[in-house]
Amino acid sequence: MRSRHHRSGGSSGGTVRHNNGQIPLNRNHVFDSNGPDLRVRGTAQQLFEKYLQLGRDASSSGDRVMAEAYFQHAEHYFRILNAMTQAAQQSQQERQERMSNRQPRPSRTASPAIILPMNPPSRRPSSPP
Predict the structure, then answer these.
(1) Do 110 and 70 contact (CB within 8 A), yes or no?
(2) How many other C-beta atoms are found inside a 10 Å radius of the C-beta of residue 90?
(3) 36 membership: H or E segment, kind and range
(4) What is the pLDDT of residues 12-62, one digit of tens each?
(5) Model confidence over 109-120: pLDDT tens digits?
(6) What is the pTM of this model?
(7) How many Cβ atoms sit within 10 Å of the Cβ of residue 81?
(8) Phi first, then psi: what are they for 40, rounded to 5°?
(9) CA 60 to CA 57: how far, in whole Å?
């Protein structure tokens, strides 16, 4: 059995990273989270809700230290959700600006044409004087 620290083939443990080393801001991205005492997997929204509920449960059972740890994890995923929302809004705004700045293509109407005669007038040879 592999240890949990094993990385196969130089991958980054299932997390997809782009050029700048950041996790892509996609609402459907699944995170593997190693919480204070358990491992949780899900989207940022799911992890936020899960850690928030775990924090409430720990708080109601009187474990203030564990509750604070869960709330800190919940805050982390809350910040990720906010970053995703901001990125989506910015992307939408940029897309709208591109669409509004787009130059309309000129219409293809008939331009005035030069009409040439089909048969040019024939020139008569001039008679010698």
Answers:
(1) no
(2) 10
(3) none
(4) 444 444 445 565 567 888 888 888 888 999 999 999 999 999 999 999 999
(5) 555 556 656 665
(6) 0.59
(7) 16
(8) -125, 145
(9) 5
